[in-house]
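Design job #97: recover the sequence.
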């Protein structure tokens, strides 16, 4: 062998004749079953290949590959394994000169076939399969970086390679003592190597056979194997390509829209797992497409559940829907929406929240929804999705993160008759406002926690200036709903508490106290409400005034609240949260007239807080629900200015439908011309420091903000 190697290196032009001779001998020995000589000839070919790297090696390689092919075609497992081992050695050689005419199609097909070997002896079967895996690994290494070779990423090759690897990844084989690693470990390593070498344009061809394999073998329903496959894929490919895999999964989910709920749930579960892994990269340019697809699947599932079939129920052979499976799918989709949202930065999460809100049917505006039950189910599912998106949402600027286009329709749901929808909306509001995980603290004993109100930021002040009255109004009106339960009142308390802790300035504290006292009046006057609701509103008011008294730390205010609570504990304990906000509330059959020392006094509170610098005049004014922040005791001039501000704000922030409805009443052209060209009468009184009367200005001379001018 040493002499032959020396001769080949000395006279490289003889290599092709040496190869041809060894190839001829090996073919003859295989045919005559002289396997000892076959091994010798193959060893000689291997050693010459490893030693010679001259330009004329190409012709020798052709002889070598012909012999490997001959061995792989043989019936004997040992010859197949021998041929594979030689090919793997060859695959690890970096050739100096490119080859323009070499084809590996046969090797891809044959190694894939070996991966599926069904040889009777389990040990030999495992060896053949492992040889097939190593062979495919060799083909990939040899061709993946050589632009002159046939493209290994073409579907004709990937459709053989990938299913062969997945088959071995899925099928446990008995481990042989001599092998260093099991077939599954070898397969996974090979699969990771293949994916790691995939460039941007090749991801689709590498992933599509995986989807087809999982479809053909019904592997989505079990979830475990499908999740494992895509975990390998997501961790192996380059992170900047992750969104391509997600896109393919979403497309596959769409393609399976009419498949069984268990299949769709399996795909959704895989998407959820993939999203978490992708967080290190990015979802790419398709953020809203991701949520659009998931929301579409959610809506389809609701339709299937309510209609009972995938197609028109009159069509022959339509599949029967299993409601519990559709419910499981819906939960899986909602969980996946949360998984995706958790990977997004704040600004993108705000966009997604707006996007989902735009999909929620608003009562009376979407007659095309079909039955009321369909609309309700879709509202509930989308609100649950929104709740998932808001979980852990943190922003320093509430005004930009929660614009009116999001907050207005959300708050409108707090006034719906449906108790479940109202509770979901309250939970969403709590999730958005609670930026420091204070919810549980607010719901426990305040005196132990010693909560403090941090100074409100400028952005939070602006947010409350714009939206506070709307929030208070919805809290007040939501308390009046007859079908509210314990959960609703606890959520209302948590919401008020979090507004106080997270967003309160001095003016907000005053308004919140007025709101709590207004709730007490509501419980006293609304006798048509159920007894539980009236007791719960009293308890809500008491719990909240207790919280706010401890946060403001004004001794006389704390003392008054404490005295009222003590009086209730002795006489009317069913007006306190301890007796009401429990699973089995202790309430009387009928609520007698409540009066005297068991009620909080607006006059006393205004007096005690007024001495500590709070606005006592405002505190003494009863709260009346307002749409926007209208101040109390206002002059005619201030009222007119506020009216104008409200008009401007409405046209800036209100939904188009509301503006259209408001402007629907036709006004005669003559009246409109008079309004534009004739100045209105001057209001009485003077402006500024009393110098000169205020001068009326015609509308056409008024300076409007740029935002209002087109």
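Job complete. Output follows.
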């Amino acid at each position: 062998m040493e002499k032959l190697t020396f001769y080949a290196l000395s006279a490289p032009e003889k290599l092709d004749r040496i190869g041809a001779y060894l190839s001829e001998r090996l073919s003859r020995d295989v045919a005559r079953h002289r396997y000892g000589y076959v091994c010798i000839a193959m060893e000689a070919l291997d050693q010459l290949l490893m030693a010679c790297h001259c330009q004329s090696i190409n012709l020798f390689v052709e002889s070598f590959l012909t012999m490997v092919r001959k061995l792989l075609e043989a019936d004997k497992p040992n010859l197949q394994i021998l041929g594979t081992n030689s090919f793997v050695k060859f695959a690890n050689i970096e050739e100096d000169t490119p080859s323009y005419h070499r084809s590996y199609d046969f090797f891809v097909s044959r190694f894939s076939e070996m991966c599926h070997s069904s040889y009777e002896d389990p040990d030999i079967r495992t060896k053949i399969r492992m040889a097939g895996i190593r062979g495919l690994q060799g083909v990939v290494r040899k061709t993946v970086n050589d632009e002159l070779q046939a493209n290994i990423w073409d579907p004709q090759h990937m459709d053989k390679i990938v299913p062969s690897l997945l088959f071995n990844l899925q099928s446990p084989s008995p481990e042989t003592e001599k092998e260093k690693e099991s077939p599954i470990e070898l397969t996974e390593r090979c699969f990771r190597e293949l994916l790691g070498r995939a460039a941007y344009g090749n991801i689709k061809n590498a992933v599509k056979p995986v989807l087809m394999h999982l479809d053909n073998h019904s592997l989505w329903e079990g979830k475990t194997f499908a999740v494992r496959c895509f975990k390998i894929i997501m961790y192996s490919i380059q992170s900047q390509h992750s969104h391509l895999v997600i896109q393919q999964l979403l497309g596959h989910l769409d393609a399976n829209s009419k498949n069984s709920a268990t299949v769709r749930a399996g795909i959704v579960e895989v998407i959820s797992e993939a999203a978490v892994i992708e967080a290190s990269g990015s979802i790419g340019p398709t953020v809203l497409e991701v949520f659009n697809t998931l929301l579409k699947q959610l809506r389809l599932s609701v339709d299937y559940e309510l209609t009972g079939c995938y197609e028109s129920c009159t069509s022959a052979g339509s599949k029967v829907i299993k409601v519990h499976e559709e419910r499981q799918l819906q939960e899986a989709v909602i969980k996946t929406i949360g998984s995706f949202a958790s990977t997004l930065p704040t600004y993108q999460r705000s966009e997604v929240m707006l996007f989902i809100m735009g999909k929620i049917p608003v009562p009376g505006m979407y007659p095309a929804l079909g039955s009321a039950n369909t609309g309700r189910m879709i509202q509930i599912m989308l609100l649950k999705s929104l709740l998932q998106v808001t979980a852990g949402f943190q922003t320093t600027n509430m005004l930009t993160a929660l614009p009116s286009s999001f907050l207005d329709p959300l708050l409108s749901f707090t006034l719906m008759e449906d108790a479940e929808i109202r509770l979901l909306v309250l939970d969403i509001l709590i999730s958005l406002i609670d930026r420091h995980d204070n919810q549980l603290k607010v719901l426990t004993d305040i005196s132990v926690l010693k909560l403090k109100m941090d100074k409100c930021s400028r952005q939070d002040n602006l947010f409350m200036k714009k939206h506070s009255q709307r929030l208070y109004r919805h809290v007040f009106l939501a308390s009046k709903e007859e079908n509210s339960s314990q959960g609703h009142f606890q959520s209302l308390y948590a919401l008020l508490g979090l507004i106080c802790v997270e967003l309160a300035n001095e003016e907000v504290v005053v308004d919140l106290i007025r709101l709590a006292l207004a709730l007490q009046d509501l419980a006293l006057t609304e006798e048509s409400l159920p007894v539980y609701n009236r007791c719960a509103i009293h308890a809500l008011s008491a719990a909240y005034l207790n919280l706010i008294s401890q946060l403001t730390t004004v001794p006389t205010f704390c003392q008054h609240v404490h005295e009222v609570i003590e009086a209730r504990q002795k006489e009317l304990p069913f007006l306190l949260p301890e007796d009401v906000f429990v699973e089995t509330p202790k309430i009387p059959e009928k609520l007698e007239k409540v009066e005297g020392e068991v009620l909080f006094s607006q006059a006393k509170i205004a007096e005690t807080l007024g001495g500590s610098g709070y606005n006592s005049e405002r505190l003494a004014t009863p709260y009346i629900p307002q749409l926007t922040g209208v101040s109390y005791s206002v002059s005619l001039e201030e009222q007119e200015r506020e009216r104008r501000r409200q008009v401007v704000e409405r046209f800036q922030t209100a939904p188009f439908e509301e503006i259209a409805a408001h402007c629907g009443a036709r006004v005669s052209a003559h009246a409109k011309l008079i309004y534009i060209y004739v100045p209105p009468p001057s209001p009485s009184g003077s402006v500024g420091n009393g110098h000169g009367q205020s001068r009326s200005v015609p509308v056409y001379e008024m300076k409007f903000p740029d935002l209002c001018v087109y």
